[in-house]
Design a protein that fits this description.
Blueprint lengths: L1 H19 L3 E10 L4 H14 L3 H6 L1 E10 L4 H13 L2 E7 L4 H11 L4 E4 L15 E6 L1 H15 L4 E5 L2 H18 L4 E4 L5 H12 L5 E4 L5 H13 L8 E4 L18 E7 L8 H4 L4 H7 L5 H24 L17 H12 L2 E3 L2 E5 L4 E4 L2 E6 L4 E8 L3 E4 L3 H5 L9 E2 L2 E8 L7 E2 L14 E2 L1 H13 L2 E6 L14 H7 L5 E2 L7 H4 L2 E3 L4 E3 L1 E6 L17 H24 L5 H6 L9 H12 L11 H34 L6 H5 L5 E3 L5 H8 L3 H12 L1 H4 L4 H11 L3 E6 H8 L5 E4 L6 E3 L2 E3 L4 H15 L1 H11 L11 H4 L6 H36 L1
Parallel strand pairs: 1-2, 1-3, 3-4, 4-5, 5-13, 6-7, 6-8, 8-9, 9-10, 18-21, 18-22, 26-27
Antiparallel strand pairs: 10-14, 11-12, 12-13, 14-15, 15-16, 17-18, 19-20, 23-30, 24-29, 25-27, 25-28
Helix pairs in contact: 1-2, 2-12, 4-5, 6-7, 8-9, 12-13, 15-28, 18-20, 18-21, 23-24
């Protein structure tokens, strides 16, 4: 009683501080079972006091105040009355634990008034009406997903003669339905036995005595009742069912391992699952509330299911606080009452934000699906041994069951459990592949004499040095062949195989994070972001075209221009014959005929005007001058257009690349293209739903002997060798490294996809969080950027192809571009000389006729 008064006094003091500090008080409703004693209630109130010190609330100037209301599993009227009491107290969220069927009643009422309702209720998920409540959420793991975890454990332990003991009919119905759908490919259908809770010991003892003679294995379906689990274990011991030939699987997620101590030396095989708690370094705001000393001293006096409730409560408060800050919801209607029809309009929006909010909490990673059920969580699988309780594996919806031999070596602390230690640090094996600039053999004079890690250098080596210094481990490099792909039989190769065979602790290389690989291994945070791009030669060799100067105008235009010149010449000749003004001045001066009376002079006038060189005689008549003006205007436009187009044509011709994107490749058949035969790039094209990429994959499959390469090095050599007849798909980071050193190559187009490189680890490895933290730190400090700058643009010949912008704007024309002009000039000189001889011969012939 004294403790309750102290707790009330603490809240009174905090209320005064809240008013003076101008914090916003937010009321949180709690539905408390009437069976709880004063100590349990006090601990819940203390959780609120501790939670209000969190940074997220101080920044938001919020203060969470608990409003308690009691419920009884045998009194639905009391439950309805308690819910209405919390509504009238203006609670912005209501939380309840293990309400069983009362959860539906509470959820229905709170949903009508738009108030978010969070539960940790194992029984709620059996009723599909729960999906209709927009404001309701359940922090207890989704039951169908939890069932899948238990079946994975049964399958891994290879248990036969399986018996499932249950105490609630609804539990068995869903389990039977789930097992029926999975049994054909996973395990033999088990036998289900119902035992009433009210007559547990008598019925259970008789059943266990009968099962003891059949070497059966038992799954005890009980997800939250700690007392029921203890009674079940006691009956198993008294009946003699506990022996080395039988297995017992407990499904109580809140089971305290202390209750297993009496059974250590019996030689029993007891496996149990529990929620995997997050690491304090990852989420201090949630785990800081679990005061280790208080838990250690109080655990003897408090039911272990109360500790279970405590963790879910803290996560519920954190979920509400984060969502409240994100949703910007501030006001709560003051006139809500169960006697009225008003409801909180913004409450359903707040509940929607809560369903989309995810974080790492006391009970692990918390993430909801659209219906408000917890779809993502992590379980630890432990087994009882004669020495202690040992963690044997982990299970998560995304990764499935990870039962690792190495896991027990990590689990009790990072620096313990390793067989090989150097200077107090664990020694890890890193599997990798040789790939520039990530891992390369050193090329100095002592390269052949070097041993171990000293043989290698590169981006990954420097990155591993940085990460190992932060996390605290030594490492040994193990070079293997292949990144890791799966064959038709489901067998993996390369680095992924090393991880699955447990011959390496991690894989560090230019290893892409892909869905297929994540099914069998874990990845850290990415350390490099990239995508697939195209490698191609800069200037493919072309056939020589000495008449390229004619290309700016099409053949039709050239013919029409020649025809236009002939027509102008003919027009000038006719005008000179018709118009009297063309020869009027010549008759007065007795100078003879006009030059335009000769067609050859008219033709010369057209040609001289065409090349803009002028002529020594001009038309005199207005009609002739008009035709000449139109011709000059025409030639001005055409010559100007030709000159401008010629400059652009020659420039583009020098810079022209036959392709500019992957779509250009797909729409032609002259240039072949390919990628590395095994790896994420080939998987991208093979699994793509994009019509263009699917078409390209079919083309690569048809020519796979010609275009699919064993590695990036072979692809690079093929691009250079084919000189424009082959393009190679590879990661953009590798292309950046290549074009910095080989000036004949370039990257074409943008990125076809977005991917990342990460460190691969065996499923469930505790190194994952520490390595991810180290990568984040290195990114924030800019060290990864500096390492990339070093190995891409400085070391091993980097920076050789940096172009000078001033010198690259104008480039010289070579003989291939203008050779046709010289040929025309030469032919012109020859033809002109020949015509002179013809004219001379013609003149001699004419003189002979006259004589």
């Amino acid at each position: 009683m004294k403790s309750i008064r102290l707790s009330a006094l603490a809240f009174l003091i905090i209320d005064v501080v809240t008013i003076l500090g101008k914090q916003t008080q937010v009321r949180i409703g709690l539905l408390i079972p009437t069976t709880w004693d004063a100590g349990q209630v006090e601990r819940v109130e203390k959780a609120f006091v501790d939670f209000n010190t969190q940074k997220i609330l101080q920044e938001s100037k919020l203060f969470l105040h608990p409003e308690l209301a009691y419920v009884s599993h045998n009194d639905t009227f009391l439950t309805s009355k308690s819910v209405c009491h919390l509504i009238e107290k203006h609670c912005m969220m209501v939380y309840g634990a293990n309400l069983n069927n009362l959860g539906e009643i509470s959820a229905s009422t709170l949903n009508f008034f738009g108030i978010p309702f969070v539960q940790s209720n194992p029984s709620l998920l059996w009723n599909h009406q729960h999906h209709q409540f927009e404001t309701s959420m359940n922090l207890f793991p989704k039951r169908s997903t939890l069932s899948s975890a238990i079946l994975d454990i049964v399958k891994h332990l290879n248990l036969s003669h399986l018996v499932v003991i249950y105490h609630e009919e609804m539990e068995a119905l869903l389990w039977k339905h789930f097992i029926d759908s999975e049994s054909k490919r996973r395990l033999v259908i088990p036998k289900f036995i119902f035992i009433d809770k009210d007559n547990l010991k008598y019925e259970l003892m008789s059943i266990l005595l009968r099962l003891k003679t059949t070497t059966s294995n038992i799954v005890h379906l009980n997800f939250h009742d700690g007392t029921l689990s203890e009674d079940f274990l006691h009956c198993c011991q008294v009946s003699g069912f506990m022996n080395p030939s039988t297995n017992i699987i407990l499904t109580n997620l809140g089971l305290n391992p202390i209750v297993l101590d009496p059974y250590k030396h019996i030689g029993s095989n007891i496996t149990f699952i529990h929620m995997s708690q997050s690491d304090a370094s990852n989420e201090p705001t949630a785990l800081a509330l679990l005061d280790e000393n208080s838990v250690e001293h109080e655990v003897k006096d408090v039911e272990d299911e109360q500790d279970y409730f405590h963790g879910f409560l803290l996560d519920a408060l954190m979920l509400f606080s984060k969502a409240l800050r994100l949703s910007m919801v501030e006001r709560f209607p003051r006139n809500l009452s169960c006697q009225g029809t008003e409801f909180w309009r913004r409450g359903k929006y707040l509940a929607e934000v809560m369903k989309k909010t995810q974080f790492l909490g006391v009970t692990g990673h918390l993430k909801m699906d659209g219906s408000g059920e917890r779809s993502d969580f992590s379980l630890e699988i432990s087994q009882l041994t004669q020495a202690s309780v040992e963690t044997k594996g982990t299970w998560a919806p995304k990764n499935g069951l990870m039962w690792s031999k190495r896991l027990s070596g990590y689990i009790n602390g990072f620096t313990s459990g390793f067989e090989h230690l150097t200077h107090g640090k664990p020694s890890l094996t890193i599997t990798t592949v040789l790939s520039s600039p990530y891992i390369m053999e050193k090329l100095d004079s002592k390269a052949k004499q070097r041993l171990g890690n000293d043989r290698y250098e590169g981006f990954i080596i420097d990155l591993a040095d940085q990460i190992s210094s932060i996390v605290g481990f030594n490492y040994t490099i193990k070079v293997t062949n292949g990144y890791g792909s799966v064959n038709a039989e489901g067998q993996w190769n390369g680095m992924i195989k090393d991880l699955l065979d447990e011959t390496a602790d991690m894989a560090m290389a230019d290893l892409s994070i892909s869905y297929e690989r994540e099914q069998v291994v874990d990845f850290t945070m990415p350390f490099l972001d990239l995508g697939i791009s195209l490698l191609y030669v800069k200037a493919p060799s072309k056939s020589v075209n000495i008449f390229g100067f004619l290309a700016p105008l099409s053949l039709n235009v050239w013919l029409l221009m020649i025809l236009g010149g002939l027509m102008v010449s003919l027009s000038m000749y006719i005008i000179a014959r018709i118009s009297p003004y063309e020869t009027e001045e010549l008759h007065q001066e007795n100078d003879g005929q006009t030059p335009f009376s000769s067609f050859r002079h008219c033709l010369w006038f057209s040609v001289a005007s065409w090349v803009q060189q002028g002529c020594d005689f001009l038309p005199r008549a207005i009609s002739g001058r008009f035709v000449a003006s139109i011709w000059w205007f025409f030639t001005l436009i055409m010559i100007s257009s030709y000159t401008a187009n010629l400059a652009a044509f020659l420039t583009v011709e020098r810079m022209e690349v036959p392709i500019s994107s992957a779509s250009d490749l797909a729409s032609q058949s002259k240039i072949l293209y390919g990628c590395v035969a095994t790896g994420s790039t080939a998987a991208f094209f093979r699994n793509s739903n994009n019509p263009t990429y699917s078409k390209m994959w079919r083309t690569m499959e048809r020519h796979k002997d010609e275009v699919m390469m064993a590695g990036n090095k072979e692809g690079l050599e093929q691009v250079l060798q084919e000189d424009g007849a082959y393009a190679f798909f590879m990661e953009s980071t590798s292309i950046e490294y290549t074009v910095e050193r080989n000036c004949q190559l370039q990257q074409i187009g943008g990125l076809l996809d977005s991917k990342s490189y990460g460190i691969a680890l065996p499923h469930g490895s505790p190194l994952r969080a520490r390595l991810s933290d180290a990568i984040i730190k290195l990114n924030e400090d800019g060290l990864i950027r500096d390492l990339k700058e070093k190995w891409w643009k400085k070391e091993r010949g980097g920076g050789a192809c940096q172009e000078d912008v001033d010198s690259s704007t104008v480039s010289e024309l070579n003989l291939m571009n203008v050779g046709g002009i010289f040929l025309v000039l030469t032919l012109g000189l020859i033809i002109g000389t020949l015509l002179a001889f013809v004219e001379r011969y013609w003149m001699i012939c004419c003189q002979r006729r006259k004589t």
